[in-house]
Every structure is written in C-alpha cells, then in structure tokens.
Amino acid sequence: MSTAVSLLSRAGRVYFRAEELADKLQSLFALAIRLYLARVFLLAAFTKLRDWDITLALFENEYRVPILSPAAAAFLGTAAELGLPLLLLAGFGTRAAALALFAFNAVAVISYPDLSDAGLKDHVLWGALMLVLAVYGPGRFSLDRFLSR
Fold first, then answer.
1. What is the per-residue pLDDT for 123?
2. Using CA atoms, how far apart are residues 101 and 83, in angstroms rounded to an integer?
3. What is residue 1's predicted lDDT score, i.e. its pLDDT?
4. Domains in the chain: how many in total?
5. Taking Cα atoms as reference points, which of 149, 118, 140 lies closest to residue 26?
6. Exposed, middle or buried by CB within 10 Å (0-12, 13-18, 19+), for 123?
7. Cα–Cα distance between 119 and 109 in angstroms, integer?
8. Pick from 103, 100, 86: which is nearest to 142 by CA?
9. DSSP letter string over 8-38?
10. Is 78 inside any structural domain?
C-alpha cells in the first residue's frame, strides 16, 4: 500500500511541476498564437489589396456576404483583415480584437459556399485559437499587460 501511495505522491508532484511550467509558458504560447493569426489575416488582406478589381469581382460573384453590398463587404472585410491583426500583434485590446476576428471568420465561412474541407479546417483552427486569446488573454508580452500596470 505504501508503494502505491509513494507512486501516487510522485505522480502528483510531477503533474504539479508540469502545470507550473505550462503556466510559465502561457505568455509565449499566447504570443505565438497572436503572431500566427496576424500573419494569416494580414496576408489575406495584402492579397486583396494587390488587385482591388479582382477583390471586388470575388465579392460580387463568389462570396455571399449577407446584408452588405459587395463593395461594402470588400472594403469592410479588407479593413478587418488589416486592422484586427495589427491589434493582435501589439496585444492591444486583444480580447475584443480576437472576438471581432472570430465573428469575421465565421462570416467568411458562411459567405463562401464553395469552401473546401481543408479550408473549413483552417477556419475552425483559427476560430479556436481566437477563442483561446479571448478567454485567456494576450499574456505578458502585450500592450494590454503593460497598460494594466
């Protein structure tokens, strides 16, 4: 019986040390998520800006954004893909930016009926990562943390 208790005690100590390490790495993990998401959405924005006529044509013929005109959807979508990732990069208003980008991501999935299974998986991954930021915050390496002091 004492051997089982000893093993359980050791396992508990290892678990709690691993938990402490994970807590210490949270800020680096949050930064990595912010950098990854910013890259994904900024590259999409740059692609749209590269040829605005093609972007407008896509919003007129491919994307089915509800409520907005194709031109307004193109403008607002591109603005969101530019502005929100910059907030994530800086870690400024991170939770709000992550939630706004989550909503934008959801509209993108709904608006593009020809989205492939692989594309859908990407959007689900991005959405999950945005929710991680919204719930756990940006970590120590952010303007949010700096300004909260």
1. 97
2. 10
3. 66
4. 1
5. 140
6. middle
7. 9
8. 86
9. HHHHHHHHHHHHHHHHHHHHHHHHHHHHHHH
10. yes
> Angle between the 2-50 and 117-136 helix axes, to the nearest 10 degrees?
110
The whole-number mean pLDDT for each consecutive block of 10 residues of the chain, a chain of 149 residues, reads: 83 90 92 98 97 95 90 96 97 98 95 92 98 96 93
CA distance linking residue 27 with residue 101, whole number of Å: 20
The answer to whether 91 touches 139, Cβ cutoff 8 Å, is yes
pLDDT at 140: 93
Residue 60 lies in a domain: yes
- pTM, to two decimals: 0.87
Kindly report the length of the chain.
149
Residue 142 lies in a domain: yes
1-42: per-residue pLDDT in tens?
A: 688 888 888 888 999 999 999 888 999 999 999 999 999 999
Residues 113, 63: contact at Cβ < 8 Å? no
The domain in which residue 84 lies consists of 25-148
Closest C-alpha to 101, from 117, 83, 118, 74 = 83
